[in-house]
User: Fold this.
Amino acid sequence: MAERRQAVPAPAALPVRQFAWSDMFIAPQDDPREQGDRPAGERETLARFLRDYRLTLELKCSGLDAQALAGRSVEPSDLSLLGLVRHLADVERSWFRRVLAGQHAPPRYRTEADRNAAFTGAIGDPAVVAEAWASWREEVRFAERFAAQVPDLDQARPYTWGEQGSGTITVREVLVHMIEEYARHCGHADLLRERIDGRVGQ
Assistant:
């Protein structure tokens, strides 16, 4: 006889679902993602798309306290908004400092003992939240300076990535990959924020 699984009880009170145009995070005219002239050329276009995704992550986390930012989605996932900030700080650090700039830049959060520490260590402590944002912003500043100053997007650097082996990667490929990375995780952030207070969109 097949084992019967106990139904997971529904949360006591889920937030009321709201939509961007009726309850926006900020007014359209104040949206930093819409400011500035249209980008000209490949470098500016890639930089603008990546900048706007970084701003979207900040937007999705805005107005929340430490407990809300550290709130998990649903079992067995350990995703949280705070975990995403910590994870993306490590991603920025790895690609721009370690791979492209050739610096010795070990992860801030990921360890050999806990390769998922960016998420498992994302706890509802204001000091942990402040440190995560400071780390993320420091890595973003470095990445933006590097991408703006590198003379050629075709500049290639050797890299090794786990079991995937080794090879070379260009600055262009890293920028496109980072857009992909943020696009994926901003989708996660959409769902996480909706579960917290019903805010969606924008």
Notes: The beta strands are 156-160, 166-170. The first helix runs from residue 41 to 61.
